[in-house]
C-alpha cells in the first residue's frame, strides 16, 4: 500500500533528475520534468482509484471493511498525486 503512495513522487523526481543530468537548471528541470510526466502520473493514479470503486458497493460485514479500505486508499492516492505534481517539483528546484 505504501508503494501506491510514493510511486508517483518517485517517477516525477526521477524525471526531474534526468533533466538535471542533461545540464538544465534546477527550475527548468523541475518545470519540464514534472510537465512531461504529469499526465501519465494522473492517468495511472485515476486508473488505480477506479480499481477500488467496486469495493464501495460490496455488502455485508466484509463490504463495510473493504469500504473503509477503499476510501482510505483512494484519498491517499489522490493526495499523493497532488503532492507529487506540486510539492516534489518545488523541492527539487531548491
UniProtKB/TrEMBL annotation:
This protein's record includes keyword Transmembrane helix: yes
Keywords in alphabetical order: Membrane, Transmembrane, Transmembrane helix
Entries under InterPro entries matching the protein: Acrflvin-R (IPR001036)
GO cellular component: plasma membrane
Pfam families: ACR_tran
Bilayer-spanning residue ranges: 37-57, 69-92
GO molecular function, one term: xenobiotic transmembrane transporter activity
Protein name listed in UniProt: AcrB/AcrD/AcrF family protein
Organism: Pseudomonas syringae pv. actinidiae ICMP 19096
Amino acid at each position: 500500500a505504501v508503494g501506491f503512495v510514493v510511486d508517483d513522487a518517485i517517477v516525477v523526481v526521477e524525471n526531474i533528475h534526468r533533466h538535471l543530468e542533461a545540464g538544465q537548471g534546477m527550475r527548468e528541470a523541475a518545470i519540464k520534468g514534472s510537465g512531461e510526466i504529469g499526465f501519465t502520473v494522473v492517468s495511472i493514479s485515476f486508473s488505480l482509484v477506479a480499481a477500488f470503486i467496486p469495493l464501495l458497493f460490496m455488502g455485508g460485514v466484509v463490504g463495510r471493511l473493504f469500504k473503509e479500505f477503499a476510501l482510505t486508499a483512494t484519498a491517499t492516492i489522490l493526495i499523493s498525486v497532488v503532492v507529487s505534481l506540486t510539492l516534489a517539483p518545488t523541492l527539487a528546484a531548491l
